[in-house]
Input
Amino acid sequence: MHSTMSVVPVETRSSVHSAIARASARTGVDFNYLLGQAQVESGLRSNARAATSSASGLYQFVEQSWLGVVKAHGGEHGMAWAADSIRQGSNGRYHVADGATRQAILNLRNDPQAASLMAAEHAADNKASLEGSLGREATGTDLYMAHFLGLGGARQFLSAMDASPDRSGAAMFPAAARANRGIFFGEGGQPRSLSQIYDRFAAKLDRGAQAVGGAPMPTMQPAVQRFGFDGDVVVGSEAQGGDEAWLATTLANLNVVRGPSAPTAMASLYRPTPESARLAYSILARLGTA
Output
């Protein structure tokens, strides 16, 4: 579901940061979670497109996932025209009768504000559903699996991993494996196990945190605080200064990335801490959009 990415202009990064901050403030989903997911998915490029699937936009929503979340939550965020146009068939798939309207709804994936709001709502929905089925609190990596494989796929993946961590991920998810060979297969085409895939996602997100603050986030619970900038994605040099350098400095100063070792560092990915909320509003104020 990941796309080919390039350097993001400073002005584009600024508008994306502002959109994510607004979505966090409106939904209560943690700013750092949303920022990290966008970085991993698209390198903060609102027009990113996947080469091997229908995924597009800041959060790389595939078409059916996007139509579903807009149907459920679009009306809450000024997109009632879109939500009202989407119908769900008896087979569970979403469709829009008018082709032009369908395309207009799908194009919203490339709007940073719409994408950020829907990603936040999608995260909250997935959290509640996963916790109900798993019988435990969902971690950050659990939630990322729900975005990557869909909710049903994540349930299947996590349940199977608990029972048989060495099971081949490609054998369970052949379609996803075809579209994401680098995730499901290692060197020489060797299939990765479920635990290997999960751990690679967790490590990738940890590297993202280190890329911004120079140190991994404390891990009071496995993977809960693993969201941040993706160290494998080039989004511009911090030596250039501007908003990217300011954001990195602010994150570090607020201990959002290099948090204290005590369990008070971040209470929940879905309820902003005072520090992350302050960061979101600081971005809005700096950009004149508060």
